[in-house]
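It would be a great kindness if you could assist me with a short task in structural biology. A protein sequence and the structure tokens that stand for its backbone fold form the material at issue. I should value your view on which stretches of the chain appear to form regular backbone elements. The record follows directly beneath this note.
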Amino acid sequence: MKKHLFPLFLLFIGINASAQQDFFALVGKDSPNIVFNDFRAVDANNGISGETIFTETSSAKVFSQSRNGAVTEDKNTYNNAQAMNMATLAYDPSHNNLVYMPMFSSNIYVLNAKSREITLVENNVARVTACDINSHFTRMAMGYDGSIYAINNAGTQFLKISRTGNQYVVSDLGIITEDATNGKSSFTVMETGFGGDMIADAEGNFYVFSASGNVFKVSTKELKARFIGKISGIPDNYSVNGSAVNSKGNVVIASAKGGSLYEVDLNTLQAKQLPGEQNLHIYDLASKYFANDKAVSANAFANIDIYPTRVDEKLININVNDKSVKGSVKLNVFDLSGKNVLTQSLSVKDGFSRQQVYLKNLVSGAYLVSITDESGKVLLNKKIVVTE
């Protein structure tokens, strides 16, 4: 409750500091082979490493979900929390967990970023075979529904890792097939669709970034991958191994071969080099953000917005930047039954307003946020999902 009473400049400082702790990297050693080094926070705007969360030499406290107790793992095998070959990472902000899988293993690990405790989720759903590189999982991201999703190299398994209470449940959603328009830019062929990483958008879709720089949009309803283009503006030999959405709604990509981070506009696929560290070997990236999360409906003013739409801290941002908006605007929040559960007036000066609204007493679930002007005209309707 006290957060929304802070002076506005302190709120912005807090938001920026928080943003640097919700973008994470799976970092490897400077080696021609995949060799795990650590998980760390990254400042995605400046390309600078932050806090180290967990390393290859950290003391691993592993709790087995199926055996309901602590376990000691053999570090000489592929089935351990600090395995050498890892290329997947997702972030669950609602529990402050990093989720990952070793490449040669079906084990799923959930690392709490604060306590450093690890939950081992054994599962018989992932069919990983050591000698079949196509079966290894190299792409992972949190979906807009809060579950973790992972895709293997060939797209023959699309996993959903959901949480029920304190238990994780793994399910296989099926095989992802090619869209008929893909042509030579195949999702399933190694040269064009192999490896890389994935992100999610606010509509429930996923975007897979292959190591070669090809980008595919995966529809979860149809289980099809459609080629939408190739990233431009990166070096010819740049291997795209990590991707995650930053706080501005753009995609940040990174390479296991080292080099700079790049920011990619998902609409144009044009990449822009970021400043900061130039030789990070990143196998995967993860964040709390989603593509298209700030997109407004077609009948709304493009310069009036509400974000984030997946709300895990009971705060939403309201931005107005439109000279035609006079006086104040009214914000109404409705639940799925149409009941008005929150009303608040927001002042607008010279067509500009930037405010935060605290969604007090709202339980987890979906809501419609409506912004109207003084005449009652609807300026924006937007769905949000509140989590606890």
Confidence is low (pLDDT under 50) at residues 1-19, 295-302. The chain is about 5% helix and 45% strand. Residues 220 and 336 are 24 Å apart (CA to CA). The first strand starts at residue 23 and ends at 28.
